[in-house]
Amino acid sequence: MSKFISGDEYCGMPPSLLRKMLRDLSRNPAKTIKGFYREMFSSTELSQGYHAEFEEQAQREFAGLPLSSLIAGLKYLEQFDVRHKLSEVSAKICIINGLEDTICPPEGIQLMKKSLPTLNDDDIHLIPGCGHHPLLTKKEACLKWANSFLSR
Description:
Elements: H1 15-27, H2 29-39, H3 43-47, H4 50-62, H5 67-79, E1 95-98, H6 107-113, E2 124-127, H7 134-137, H8 139-150
Parallel strand pairs: 1-2
Helix pairs in contact: 1-2, 1-5
């Protein structure tokens, strides 16, 4: 992800949606966070129960995290843009992305690819029926691609 927010011929989360999330967090944090967690998964993944598994894990790991930290993180993402740095990347890159990822849409990969000199088509894996969390929902495929990538 080189830019989180859409604009400037870049697809990402619409700024209005991020502003709504920030507004809703101050009104009803629990409901807003649960809604965001649901957005991370495709309809297929939701029906397979991955959302509940992730939510349970997130509640354990993020319990006690101040709301101000989450808000600060979202405000940072609103400004985040490193597209101008992509051409400087010299490391090999592997991207694994769900085709139904609404948080970081796969269309952004093609835009990143134009600027990333080391990104090859063979190292881009787009997973049908998968949302934002392929390491949870498609673990075996992700491990296979990562091992293959790292062994080259």
